[in-house]
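Exercise 4. Each item below gives a protein and its sequence. For each, produce the structure-token representation.

Item: S1 motif domain-containing protein (Streptomyces aurantiacus).
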Amino acid sequence: MPHQIPPGRVQTGDVLRGKISGIEDFGVFVDMGGFEGLIDRLEISWNRIEDHSRFLSVGQEVAVLVLNAVTERGPMALSLKALDPDPMREFAREKLGREVSGTVTEIGPIGAFVRVDVDLDADLVGLVLGRRPNGESEPSRKELQVGDDVSVTVLGVNVHKRQISLAVCGEGEGRRG
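Answer:
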């Protein structure tokens, strides 16, 4: 499949239709009628997807956003997820400062990771730090365990870094596991 795009035919920011022509671990190739583009695995969905071949198939028609039409070194860069609303932005707008429920997914040296339950088509995980801003111990590493259901307050959201800061709700309120 040639990577050559006729000059002026496609520009960064264009939305195009094409058919998936190949699926690899690193991404998905899309044939757009004479030229090819690549959707990097990180541009397929806002959610973490371990095996994108479970959601996409060769021959499937897709609409994609052109991230970079300059293709001296290979296929143009495409995105599927860029055409969908960013669930992190919606989460920040709706949940910042509010209490949400979630499930502890991992306990690490810096705190507990909690997958928040929200009415969005998203897999959002935030971090409860091991210490509160006032220096008091946060009930993350000693009291919480993987699989616990907890109530947490959304302290902050950094959309660009894809980070959510959480705090366990008051003692006795937060743990339901």
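Check: Strands lie at 15-24, 27-31, 36-40, 61-68, 76-79, 99-108, 111-117, 125-129, 149-158, 163-168.
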